[in-house]
Design a protein that fits this description.
heterodimer, A: 81 residues, alpha+beta, Ubiquitin-like (UB roll), five-stranded mixed β-sheet, 5 strands, B: 144 residues, Aldehyde Oxidoreductase, domain 3, five-stranded antiparallel β-sheet, 3 helices, 9 strands, 30% helix, 38% strand
C-alpha cells in the first residue's frame, strides 16, 4: 500500500531541503517512519523526538498512517511570540 | 500601518499593524477591564547581539491553531473577547512582534486569559523566528 502525500517544510527543515514542499508516494507505515526516511534522505539535524507532526493543518499522532492525498508538515520546535 | 486583513480573532500580519484600532474593536459596554500584551523585538538573545529577525509561519495551520487557543481562553476564563495578531516577515529591533488583547467584566479574568493566550501561542502556534546577529551569521530558534 502506498499513499501519495505532500510534505511541507518550514524553518530549519526548509533551509536543508531548499524547497517548500514535495509530493511523492510513500510506503511508510506511519508518520514517524516517514520522517525517519526523510531525515536520512535530506540530512535533517532534528531527531523525531524534537518535532511534532501535523496533517492537513492540525496536530496529528506519530503512529498515524500517511493518508492518500494528505498534506503533512513536520513541525520543528516553534518560536513565535 | 496596515490593518490586518483577515477577519478572524487570530491574525497574521506581514506589515506593522496598528494597536489602537485593534483595541477599538474590543470596546463593549459589558467590559470593565482590558488587558493586553505586546511582544517587541529585543536586541539580544542568549548572549548574542541581534540586529534583526524574520518570522516564518505555516499560515493556514497558524491561523487555525491561534483560533483554537482563543476559543480555549473563552472556555477557561470569564472573558468577553480575546484577540491576537502576530507579525510575519522581516522585523527590526523594537518592532511590535505580537499583540494580545483580552476584555472581561473584571480584571482577574482579563489578566489570566491574556497570560494564557501568549503562553499558548509561544508553545503551539507554528511560527518560527530566524535571528541575524551582529557578529555575523543567523539562526533558526528551535527551543527545547
Amino acid at each position: 500500500m502506498t499513499a501519495r502525500v505532500t510534505v511541507l517544510y518550514f524553518a530549519s527543515l526548509r533551509d536543508v531541503t531548499d524547497m517548500a514542499s514535495e509530493t511523492f508516494d510513500t510506503a511508510a507505515p506511519d508518520l514517524r517512519v516517514l520522517y525517519i526516511e526523510l531525515r536520512a534522505r535530506h540530512g535533517f539535524a532534528l531527531p523525531v523526538e524534537r518535532l511534532r507532526v501535523a496533517v492537513d493543518g492540525a496536530f496529528a499522532r506519530w503512529d498515524d498512517a500517511p493518508r492518500d492525498g494528505s498534506e503533512i508538515a513536520f513541525i520543528p520546535p516553534v518560536s513565535g511570540g | 500601518m496596515d490593518a490586518p486583513t483577515l477577519a478572524g480573532r487570530f491574525r497574521l500580519s506581514e506589515t506593522p499593524f496598528d494597536v489602537a484600532s485593534l483595541r477599538a474593536e474590543l470596546l463593549d459596554g459589558r467590559v470593565g477591564g482590558y488587558a493586553s500584551f505586546e511582544g517587541w523585538v529585543r536586541d539580544h538573545n542568549d548572549g548574542r547581539t541581534v540586529i534583526g529577525l524574520r518570522y516564518e509561519a505555516y499560515e493556514t495551520m497558524a491561523l487555525a491553531e491561534g483560533e483554537r487557543i482563543l476559543e480555549d481562553a473563552r472556555t477557561r476564563f470569564a472573558i468577553q473577547d480575546a484577540r491576537c495578531v502576530h507579525r510575519t516577515g522581516e522585523l527590526a529591533i523594537g518592532e511590535l512582534a505580537v499583540w494580545v488583547g483580552v476584555t472581561a467584566a473584571h480584571r482577574d479574568a482579563a489578566f489570566a486569559a491574556c497570560r494564557f493566550v501568549i503562553d499558548e501561542v509561544k508553545a503551539r502556534v507554528p511560527i518560527w523566528k530566524h535571528e541575524r546577529y551582529a557578529e555575523g551569521g543567523a539562526d533558526w530558534l528551535h527551543p527545547g
